[in-house]
């Protein structure tokens, strides 16, 4: 049912594209399906980019691992209910929100979004949506980690629905094989190439040890190591995440250049060092392997495609025009 809902939204989006082509005939429809624009806040909040960039820079200077969670937040926001800031909403007495989905989604750094929002509410009150803050923060996390830059499309409005059950059914599990990942991405209108390109986000950031142990401890009764994982790497992970597992301990997703947004992730995949099954599977299916090989060999190609894939991800199920709202606080929906 949730998936059906997402597909319906995508259908609406393609109608928008069509309507834009027939602009003079269908102005009424165009009005309803206002598209995102890179200059959406240029007159209403000219300091927006600076506020987002400086806040993230100040956090990164204190903690180099604080940027990656913002990139992941964008993925989780867009995959569930569309890019509408639903990932930021706190649970209430009546509702368990996406961020508290069981098993725990391990998202972090919501405080950075709160800080940005607080400054924006002073500079340009009730103007910038929380959904757009996530989109901008994700771009900054990439740029400030050495990755490519791009103009972020803006004008999303915030949703009022955030359900843990949606996060559980819509976000791909780490055990996913290539077919289920391809299907999950296709459901929201993204291609195999988008899947491989966006998975390149795992070139920065950390995973909790507990989320990774299945690959190298107790994989089966006779051998604790997943045979598809590089043995040297598996033994390294056992040293980095020793038993008993510390629930706070984290380990780099890219063991070689963990803080640098580069193409090392793809070279890791080619020597069986994808930390999750959802990573390593990309190198064992011909449909995704072609892109893994391409990016492993050509950083310009990855740096050209990553922004385009982020822009497509950022268009999923967006609320624009009169739908949704501009939240006053990113953690709570506005009082009606
Ligand atoms: C394709 C399916 C994907 C799966 C199954 C997956 C799963 C995960 C998991 C389990 C973690 C570790 C979380 C933790 O234990 O703290 C993680 C981290 C991360 N993911 Fe993904 N992910 C996927 C795709 C993506 C995409 C598309 C993006 C962004 C475009 C992304 C960005 C990140 C980042 C940046 C981190 C590091 C977060 C941190 O340092 O706290 N992932 N992912
Ligand atoms: C929870 O639901 C009850 C009954 O449906 C309602 O009276 C109450 O206001 C709700 N509380 C919140 C925090 O939404
Ligand atoms: C996830 O679980 C940890 C440990 O139980 C807890 O500290 C954290 O607040 C939880 N995060 C979310 C978003 O539910
Ligand atoms: C466990 O994994 C090893 C290594 O791949 C394999 O040789 C063995 O057959 C597996 N054992 C069982 C019981 O599945
Ligand atoms: C495992 O990783 C090492 C580098 O650490 C590499 O030399 C080796 O070829 C890899 N093995 C496999 C099977 O990919
Ligand atoms: C690498 O990718 C860029 C951008 O797509 C392309 O222009 C260039 O020709 C590629 N280089 C090689 C060696 O294939």
Oligomeric state: single chain
Number of helices: 15
* The CATH C-level class name of the largest domain: Mainly Alpha
Bound compounds, please? protoporphyrin IX containing FE, 2-acetamido-2-deoxy-beta-D-glucopyranose
Percent range for β-strand residues: under 5%
Report the biggest beta sheet as strand number plus sense, adding barrel if it closes: 2 strands, antiparallel
Explained architecture:
Mean pLDDT is 91; it is low at 1-15 and 17-32. This protein has 15 helices and 2 strands. It has a two-stranded antiparallel sheet. The radius of gyration is 20 Å and the shape is globular. The chain is an all-alpha fold and 336 residues long. One 2-acetamido-2-deoxy-beta-D-glucopyranose binds next to loops.
List the helices and strands and how they pair.
Blueprint: H1 2-21, H2 27-32, H3 48-62, H4 68-79, H5 110-123, H6 130-143, H7 164-170, H8 178-187, H9 192-199, E1 206-208, H10 209-212, H11 231-240, E2 250-252, H12 264-270, H13 277-280, H14 286-297, H15 299-313
Antiparallel strand pairs: 1-2
The structure holds protoporphyrin IX containing FE and 2-acetamido-2-deoxy-beta-D-glucopyranose (5 copies).
Describe, in short, the structure shown.
By secondary structure, the protein is mainly alpha-helical. The chain has 15 helices and two strands.
Characteristic key phrases:
Peroxidase, domain 2; Peroxidase, domain 1; 2 strands; mainly alpha; disordered N terminus; two-stranded antiparallel sheet; 336 residues; binds 2-acetamido-2-deoxy-beta-D-glucopyranose; binds protoporphyrin IX containing FE; 15 helices
């Amino acid at each position: 049912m949730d998936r059906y809902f997402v597909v319906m939204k995508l259908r609406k989006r393609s109608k928008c594209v069509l309507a834009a082509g027939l602009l003079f005939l269908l102005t009424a429809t165009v009005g309803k399906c206002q598209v995102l624009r890179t200059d959406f806040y240029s007159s209403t909040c000219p300091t927006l980019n600076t506020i987002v960039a400086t806040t993230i820079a100040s956090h990164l200077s204190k903690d180099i691992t604080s940027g990656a969670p913002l990139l992941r937040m964008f993925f989780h926001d867009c995959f569930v209910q569309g890019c509408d800031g639903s990932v930021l909403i706190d649970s209430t007495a009546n509702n368990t929100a996406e961020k508290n989905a069981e098993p725990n989604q391990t998202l972090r750094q919501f405080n950075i979004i709160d800080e940005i929002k607080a400054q924006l509410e002073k500079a340009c009150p009730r103007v910038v949506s929380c959904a757009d803050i996530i989109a901008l923060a994700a771009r900054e996390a990439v740029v400030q980690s050495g990755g490519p830059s791009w103009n972020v499309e803006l004008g999303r409005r915030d949703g009022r629905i955030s359900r843990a059950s949606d996060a559980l059914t819509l976000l791909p599990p780490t055990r996913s094989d290539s077919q289920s990942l391809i299907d999950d991405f296709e459901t929201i209108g993204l291609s195999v190439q988008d899947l491989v390109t966006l998975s390149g986000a795992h070139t920065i950031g950390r995973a909790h040890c507990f989320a990774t142990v299945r690959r190298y401890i107790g994989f089966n009764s006779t051998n604790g190591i997943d045979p598809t994982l590089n043995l040297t790497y598996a033994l390294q992970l056992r040293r980095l995440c020793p038993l008993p597992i510390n629930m706070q301990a984290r380990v780099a997703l890219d063991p070689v250049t963990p803080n640098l947004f580069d193409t090392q992730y793809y070279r890791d995949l080619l020597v069986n060092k994808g930390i999750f099954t959802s990573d390593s599977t990309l190198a064992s299916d011909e449909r995704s392997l072609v892109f893994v090989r391409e990016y492993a060999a050509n950083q310009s190609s990855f740096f050209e495609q990553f922004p385009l894939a982020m822009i497509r991800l950022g268009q999923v199920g967006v609320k624009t025009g009169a739908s949704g709202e501009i939240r006053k606080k990113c953690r709570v929906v506005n009082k009606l």
